[in-house]
Amino acid sequence: MEAPQKLYLLDYGAGNVRSLVNAVEKLGHTITHIDTVEDFARADKIIFPGVGAFGYAMQALRRKGFVEPLRAYIASGRPLMGICVGMQVLFEGSDESPDEPGLGVFEGRVERIDSSTKTVPHMGWNAAHVVGTEAAQGPDVGGDRRYYFVHSYAVPYTACGRQCEFVHTATRYGDEVVVSSVWQNNVFATQFHPEKSGSAGLTALQSFIERDLVRPSDLAEIRAPSTVEAALTKRVIACLDVRANDQGDLVVTKGDQYDVRESSEAGGDVRNLGKPVDLAKRYYDEGADEIAFLNITSFRNMPFADTPMLDVLRQASRSIFVPLTIGGGVRDITDPDGQHVWPAVEVAGEYFRSGADKVSIGSDAVYAAEAYWKRVADGAPPTDGTTAIEQIASRYGRQAVVISVDPRRVYVRSPSDAPSHHVIATSTPGPQGEAFCWYQCTVKGGREPRDLDVRQLVTACEALGAGEVLLNCMDRDGTNSGYETELIADTKAAVTIPVIASSGAGRVEHFSDVVDRTDVDAVLAAGIFHRREVPIADVKRHMAQHGIPTRTVE
Fold it and tell me: For the whole prediction, is pTM greater than 0.85?
């Protein structure tokens, strides 16, 4: 009887590897972490995932003494699969960390994606086009399937030099075409995340685990970059506001303009729309492209390590293979005993290790932006590396940091009435007929207004290292009247990072309308999905019928 293959995971501290482990186990296999140099010799196959900075990955490998054992493993001919940064470090170097050499397995350098013509990071579901002759026993990628990408740096696809020897798929992002997977001899690697790409990603992962991938050596020609078609889709995100009800159970709730309790006539209880993991799994099955858990309960009476949201993430990531975002409480935390202090970057790290891919920062993003602009006013360097945004982005990459914005309209008769704020003309007049407004940021779940507008917030947070904006609007929340398109369009124009439209969706037309008016990167809804008033499938079908590309579920 043939002994089972020994599949190993090379983890240098990249963040969320739990989802990869869960994906491998979902496919019926087991995987062992590489803990020592000796483990390389024990492995039959290795999967090498990575997120964050190129330099951090290479430095972590060196600290662990893994660089030379990894090179020796590759030279031995045993199979290796790299993922995201785990693919990038196989090249000669990266503009992200110019002084840090890569492993040099493949010719070429990793370059910054051009943000002057499109949002960066490249974040969302895109195609991976096979550029050469498809091999019957090759990696099972390509076709009409979509895969989840999230990266700010990439290897340009040129079809020149030695790329015909190792490039397997290429992907168009706006005016650039990048290498989305490589395959040469025993090495297969992807820029996209198969463990976050639903059934398409699981299929790709399964082909590496269960096949002996041997690339044909006679691929003298590969397709020109100009023939690689655009295929990026707009993301549809399901959001779950999670809090403890009066009995202490975690439930999904939804507020009307941030009030999550039923009326006093209905008992005044916390509105209960279901259990977090059950609802999240339903949304995954229905085709949600991402799922966001927003924790709106404080758990200050228990150690952070016992916070129920960590267990929600662990359970959800066992059966949900699309990106998961967690928001709420991403700040410095001191346990009730006063002995253990968790810096925000460690709080984020614990969320990542529990299954999250991104963390959403709300009130602390406002405080960070206020400090940023004060330093600018004082003539000091605007960044000092102390904020949660900077520290998390430095360790895990800016794509891991979402800022959640909770603004409300402040009406003025003319821009001169608010000289220190960004004022726009509004098609929704104020109570006294005011034709202008600015959008005031709030903290503490919308309860406390601040002297900071949305444009000031998002531009500061982008400079600090945030990778995405989740843009709510308190005036629209729970109204089912449509998104605040003026705010969304204005914010899209202010930043180069992706923007998610949130608050106000009530019917399928609202989703296509906000995309058409603002070219927003993703659309989010909560209550109408929870109550099945508007199914996710109907939203995607409607968007597709209106020429807006969306991901279909296999």
Answer: yes
